[in-house]
Design brief:
With 242 residues, the protein is α+β, with helices and mostly antiparallel strands. The protein has seven helices and ten strands. Helix 5 links the parallel strand 8 and strand 9. Helix 5 crosses helix 6. The termini are far apart. About 2% of the residues have low confidence.
Length: 242
């Protein structure tokens, strides 16, 4: 029997951070020195909050104590389960996020029940969809870097919605979804993402939904994903500690 989604997520983020102590318990914060961590861009600081605990990576040892003190203060400010919202207070200068992290246990999955088409990764019709949307939307979707089959819906011959995933540290299936702007709000994202989630679960992977836009978060919730926390990366964390 596999571990619950939250436990698998904590193990995965611990591996990405290179944390020998694992993910801290509720109400606690751990800080790891790792300039090349996969948790954030090289040389940046990265933070992940899951269920009222925070794990951070920093590029230099002199940041450890100050960052941990600040994170513990955030955790003590109120509802620990929402502590991730306080991570944005550390955003000084260039940042990535915060993005919401949601995970899915198989028993919570609510499939869309819509038949979709399956295409190989890198198919030209998916590339055409990516080229048809603003660059920011294409990058946000993550579809340019997926490795699974791509599940699509068409309007005539054109692909107008697509979803796939890429695997993180042999544990998570990081979901990627994109719908052409004129076709949004019609349930297409849920339909194609549902097929990708089913594929990931069949492969024994942990479906992960990381999103900032509210519309994307609503799609995740409709499929049964539960919010567990947030992720934030900061280029110059030292400035936030002054």
């Amino acid at each position: 029997m596999s571990l619950p989604a939250a436990d698998r997520a904590r193990e995965m983020w611990s591996r990405l951070a290179g944390s020998p102590a694992g993910f801290p318990g509720p109400g606690d914060a751990g800080v790891v020195v790792s300039p090349e961590s996969s948790l954030c861009p090289p040389g940046w600081s990265g933070m992940v909050e899951l269920d009222g605990a925070i794990l951070a990576v920093v590029p230099r040892p002199d940041l450890v104590n100050g960052v941990r003190e600040r994170l513990l203060a955030l955790l003590g400010d109120g509802d620990g389960a929402r502590a991730g919202a306080g991570l944005s207070r550390l955003a000084v200068g260039e940042v990535l996020g915060p993005a919401e992290l949601a995970y899915l246990d198989e028993t919570d999955f609510r499939p869309a029940g819509v038949e979709v088409e399956r295409l190989p990764s890198g198919h030209g019709d998916v590339e055409a969809l990516l080229a048809s949307v603003p660059e920011a939307d294409a990058v946000e979707s993550g579809l340019e870097r997926t490795e699974s089959p791509v599940y699509v819906l068409r309007d005539g011959s054109r692909v107008v919605a697509a979803s796939a995933y890429r695997t993180w540290v042999e544990t998570a299936a990081h979901l990627c979804v994109l719908t052409a702007d004129p076709h949004r709000g019609r349930g297409l994202a849920r339909a194609v993402a549902s097929a990708a989630v089913a594929d990931a679960l069949a492969d024994g992977l942990l479906p992960q939904w990381r999103a900032r836009p509210a519309a994307s978060r609503r799609v995740a919730a409709a499929l049964g994903f539960r919010r567990h926390g947030e992720q934030l990366s900061v280029r110059d964390l030292a400035a936030a500690l002054v």
